Amino acid sequence: MIFKRLFPAAMFVAAFSLPAAVPAYAEADAESLVNALNAVFGAHDGVRAAHTHGFCVKGNFTPTAEAASLSKAPHFNSKTPVNLIGRFSMGGGNPAAPNFQKDNVRGIALHFDIGNGNTTDLLMVSAPVFAAKDPDQFLALLTAVATKDKEKIGAFFQANPNSTRQAQWLNARPVPASYATVNYWGIHAFTFTNAEGKTRVIKYKALPVAGEVGLTDEEAKAKDPDFYRPELAERLAKGPAQFTLTAILGEPGDPVDDPTELWPEDQRKSVTLGTISITGTEDDKTCDAGIFDPTLVVDGIEGPANDTIFPMRSAAYAVSFGRRAK
Questions:
Q1: Which residues are the active-site residues?
Q2: Would the pTM of this model clear 0.85, i.e. be above it?
């Protein structure tokens, strides 16, 4: 399955200039962020600068009736399952990032086929927060880490405690036993609009139908560094890997412009949007033909207006794509 709209290379050659929709920052732009990622993890030809280690999958999404009450987006109103292409990955830019690494996020990125070759995308990671509130802070974080100087790195985190929240979250939990047995969050706030024009601010969360299953530190260390791929293949031979996609309903005062801030989920209502079913693996070339773009939304879904990490992700992915597509 290959979707027609997987962002051809020509589109991203033009994207080397920062898109007009992306605000200017004191230092950070898409090029500098990709360069900083390369400084930390090395520049590796032909692969992504971030979430480098991963593989492509396919499946479908079946919406609930409740989804349409929140958003008029086509994939939330479909009467039949919506085909999708996805990619599981480890965070960071190491192409050999070990699957047993505890303090690294797992990611799931999805292209939903909404017809006529068009897609809308959803990107989620296995922590509810990001490591930086804005592009400048992310650039400063990467620059500090690239020095490998413990004093400089320590000084950065002391001055920027919000950048420690993601690692703290991950380190407080076991290594996921599978890409299919861990929760995933969309770290940004989105505004849903339904057919009646009613709006609601939400955050995405996907819960594994198989339940959360982790490994002890000893079990994790005994695993092959790339154990997720064969584990998922074995799992899929028995049936689909499924996730319940939910919308956490925001309330007044919940932060919508800082992805390092945690929403109080235990005090918020959620609505089930549908079921993501991963049914098989897909040729990696399918996923590598373009990018998964968090800003690629459709009528009925609007991204956060003042979250400056949100548009910069799209611009940085475009730069990375242009480099690996050469």
A1: 51
A2: yes
